[in-house]
Amino acid sequence: MRIFRPGLVLALTFFAFTAAAVDEPAPLRGYSAAAARAERDWETRFRAIPDTRNLHDYMQRLSARPHHVGSAYDKDNAEWILARFRSWGLDAKIESFDVLFPTPRERAVELLRPARFVARLQEPAVAVDPTSSQQTEQLPTYNAYSRDGDVTGRLVYVNYGVPEDYEQLDRLGISVKGAIVIARYGASWRGIKPKVAAEHGAIGCLIYSDPKEDGYSQGEVFPKGPYRPPDGVQRGSVMDMPVYPGDPLTPGVGATPGATRLKLEEAKTITRIPVLPISYADAQPLLAALSGPVAPAPWRGALPITYHVGPGPAEVHLKVKSNWDIRRLYNVIFTIPGSTYPDEWIIRGNHHDAWVNGADDPVSGANVLMEEARGLAELLKQGWKPKRTIVYCVWDGEEEGLLGSTEWAEEHAEDLRRHAAVYINSDANSRGFLSMSGSHTLEKFMNGVARDITDPEKNISVWKRLQAHEIAEASNKQEVRNRSDLRLGALGSGSDYTAFLDHLGVASLNLSYGGEDGGGIYHSIYDDFYWYTHFDDTTFVYGRALAQTIGTAVLRLSDAEVLPYEFNDFSETVGRYVQEIEKLARDRRQQALDRNRQIDDGVFTAIADPQRTYVPPQRQPVPPFLNFAPLENGLAALTRTAERYEKALSRAAADGGSALARASLREINAKLVETERMLTLPDGLPGRPWFKHQIYAPGFYTGYGVKTIPAVREAIEQNQWKEAEEQIVRVGKVLENIGETIDAAAGGLENAANRP
């Protein structure tokens, strides 16, 4: 057991941000030099604990059988994880919620004309893959939360099925009204495709995996290689999560047994038309039966056919009918109480449920979380005590729509608003480069962690390897070389950080390794232990690296005297977003002017096709000039206060630490935690109040992909100019508000430094 002498207690509250002596390790942000040495010692001990054999064994057990939410093995896995946590001495429990989860009862896709073809809608077992034959337990190939329907109509190919593709169809004079559309996966989240199709009058939607992006065009297919075979199908939810994630019947509140539930027909996140996913083997006869214009070059996939758009002569029958049941999900939670700041929580999560066996998604992340938990338990036995409370969460129901994390966050919303300092998420993990996304107030912190983790194959820091990769890939190589911090990606949605960041305003991170795995079995029966141990992180060394990375981040956040948020990187990043939006507005105006000029000059001419009626293009209203001054003023205030905070922190540390000894660190930390909350508004984004964060949100028509400063950006994209003006003012005020909170934290440090 590690014992600290009482005389060191005061010293541990001091901070030293100046350069350390040559024979001492560099101090960490938020730590005194002495505290940094102790912290690095604990981190070194922790990083020696994760064991690749354990990661192998956890994955083999958790992925042994299909374990979708509501299945017997899903519950069994939760109970097994709970037992492992308790065996390590951790205070663990299961929290359950009852959620709507439809499973298919009837599915059919038939080509009726010009020739008859019945889609198989079935993934075959592979002889060398032992779990692929567990067909009685596997969920069929389907899209959860598709509306029931039995429809017949002409077929139209809509490329990726995003709004830009329908603009192209309009230019071709093709309507999907009354038609069934077929879209390929990619370019947006799958739930956007039936959403946009319904908005354009389609009566049904098929989604297939084209081998250009997801199959033999990428490499050898499974089982010879890692890529999707002809009959492989991507299952997945099509819940309209950009409106709200979680249980469709209990928006905004936890789905507890006594919760008030909407009627099924009142749920806003269920699709308006039926939708099914199909393989490229099933898609090829449908696409081959289309005539009409040849698809534009960017629309053409890798199937050995000429891609036509339609409509017809292909006529398709689509049928979807589901069991709309309430199922119980099982979140596994353990807590390590904080010794100094117990009311400040560091939360860590990964889900355990899968569409089928899910070795890659999510067990390659869940096994990492478990090994982190074992490592923390070992440190506790050695005498380590975190200053902040640590909460570890293994979520259920993520695949269907972030069910477990959302319901838990909604149920505990008030506690989380008061106490949650940071949420750290992972999901699937592979081999390759570190991927870092999250709140930019944590950008400098995460760069520091990445510099301290060794890449298991290259024997350099994962930060240095990522920098080299980004230099090779970047258009502006000089910026990557010269900037002290690698940029974090902004978070939209798609995993369990969503409720914490977008709804509650908790600073969040999403971390993984990847980029060298050659994945191609996403959400299929072939995502299993056999595939992972033959084609992905086969020796689990990057699983170990992720455990070291996130475990180090958890330790460093939980033990810092002052939370290591940093606002200069954040304000610089927000400034980039403001510039992007201003350019977007200028570009939209210029595009309208150019199009109107072309119409006036007679550039557009009728298409010589007797089968189609030519509709001449119409002049467009020219967008007004927008007043960005409120946004720019808010940004200026944020930048000014970010600089003030850094100076105050440096000054308070410069006198040997006596000023910090006088400061109320608890109050300063409380203000720092509050900063991310200040980026939210109670009434949320226009038309979707569940999403409250004003800097990051999933796009209404991207689903997973982020829209930064979303209220303003999407108003411009959708030509809502009055709304854009209003949102510019609102977001400008948000930036002023966070500036005031940062000012308060800086003032606390300055007051302490000014007192004798």
Keywords:
756 residues, two-stranded parallel ribbon, globular, alpha/beta, 39% helix, Transcription Elongation Factor S-II, Chain A, Aminopeptidase, Glucose Oxidase, domain 1
Q: Concise description?
A:
This protein is α/β, with parallel strands linked by helices. The protein is 39% helix and 16% strand.
Account of the protein in words:
With 756 residues, the chain is α/β, with parallel strands linked by helices. The protein has 3 domains: 32-98 and 327-559, Zn peptidases (Aminopeptidase, 3-Layer(aba) Sandwich), CATH 3.40.630; 102-324, Glucose Oxidase, domain 1 (3-Layer(bba) Sandwich), CATH 3.50.30.30; 568-754, Transcription Elongation Factor S-II, Chain A. The chain is built from 23 helices and 16 strands. The protein has helices spanning 33-47, 52-62, 72-87, 163-171, 192-199, 211-214, 280-288, 359-381, 398-401, 403-411, 413-419, 443-451, 462-473, 477-482, 498-503, 529-535, 541-559, 568-600, 629-654, 658-662, 665-677, 710-717, 721-754, and strands at residues 91-113, 117-118, 143-144, 149-157, 180-184, 204-208, 236-237, 275-278, 315-336, 341-351, 388-395, 420-425, 432-438, 507-515, 696-698, 706-708. Strands 1, 2, 4, 5, 6, 8, 9, 10, 11, 12, 13 and 14 form a 12-stranded mixed sheet that branches. A two-stranded parallel sheet has the order 3-7. Helix 4 (163-171) links the parallel strand 4 (149-157) and strand 5. The two termini are 38 Å apart. 53% of the residues are buried. The model is unreliable at 1-23 and 606-610 (pLDDT under 50).
